[in-house]
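Aim 2 progress update. The chain analyzed this quarter is reproduced below.
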Amino acid sequence: MEAVHYHPEGELIRCTLCPHQCLIREGRDGICRVRRNEGGILMAGAYGSLSSIHLDPVEKKPLYHFYPGRNIFSIGSWGCNMHCACCQNWQISQVFGQEGRVYSPVDIVRMARQQRNNIGVAYTYNEPVVWFEFMTDTAQLVHAEGMKNVMVSNGFLSEEPLSELVNLVDAFNIDLKAFSEEAYKRHTGASLQPVLDNLIRIRQTGRHLEITSLVVPGVNDNEDEFRKMVSWIRTNLGKDTILHLSRYHPMYRMKEASTPADLLRVFHAIASEELHYVYLGNLMADDLQDTRCGNCGEKVILRRGFDVDLELSLHGTCRNCGNHVATME
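Predicted structure tokens:
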């Protein structure tokens, strides 16, 4: 299928989907390895080719304030426009030329409607930006059926395609992988500023936004840098921004030991000084996965792994003070 967001430059093609702005020769791919110049036309090579299909708890995305306790039909394809050394899904994001079973957008909506306790479709596992065409085609049908769209992304895309997505995607979880250009370039092959710009754009649209930061030793575990990141989030996105701090484990090309649990707890305490909703992931964290009201501090949602207890919440509001905490319906 022909891709969108590109234009010819002489005998080459300029892909404008993400800030890499790849200039692609005939027969070659962009950095994502799934968008190819074929005879002067940019082809979306991963259209409809799925590597993964699961029904997940929405908390697994992770989204803690968007329909907690519900499920979401989750799909992934191949490829990514970043090349993180510790990618947890590297078998589908960093291994190219694979072919999965091909589905149509109609197929996805039909399967989503059959799932139990399901709120919609999540585009996840690999980077959904690189199969933009299939995601947008599917998302339109999902909305037509009254269901929700969720995008789990690295946030590294151009402004114009993002402006299209915010009309279709109801909730975003964006990975904020570090807080320096040097770390982004070294660890992901991309850059930080476009991600920060897009976080602001998403917040300005009013779409639901949660942020995940995987804390990786030697990459983004500097306390001063972390404090700057949290301060930026509060200043630019607001103190009610939901932040997930996730524990790194050795994966793909990184063999360093797992992130110390004590460091994650320190970072949780630092972030909680400025943000109301901070959570720990990939860690047995006692009550640090529970949601406390950002206004009065009372517990509103209890979590043990992916088991969610909503008894303390009244339709997403705090029973104690009435503060709105989560989208429930």
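The mean pLDDT is 95. The longest strand covers residues 208-215. These observations will guide the mutagenesis experiments scheduled for the next reporting period.
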